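Encode chain A's predicted structure.
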Amino acid sequence: MSAAVPLPVKGARRRGAQSVLRATGPAGMASAAVIAVATFVAISGSLLAPYDPTLSNLSLAWVGPTGGHLFGFDIQGRDVLARPAAQIRVDEIIDSVEETLVPVACLDESGSCGCSDQCVTHSVWQGLGERIRTFLASITLEDLTRDARKRLPDSSKCERA
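Encoded structure for chain A:
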């Protein structure tokens, strides 16, 4: 008995994964990217955020990004990235990457102005800064992703290239 070995047929071309992916169009490629990222996060989630989200260390409160803590720490000294998306507020993310969130320099902790008690517009800027912070504190990462999902185009409406 001899085993049959298939011979390549001339003119027949095997399609690679890249050409199959390209044939799905932009929506298919975007979907594949999302699936790849979700798979990576699912597999390596504990490597990305290996810290206990409930463990507090007040000496680390408001410390910005460090080597093992990409978003830094919150007001209670907890690793921001280890917390669920519903608990991570936009103002905390901005605080971890920006020096300040105030609209004018005289409201900064350094108080670079020195004339705030005589300034006519100081209270206006202070009120604006408080409203900005309150607004950003009311938005979580979960809110942003929910809003993004609503805005993503329906792949059935997209034209294939």
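The mean pLDDT is 75.
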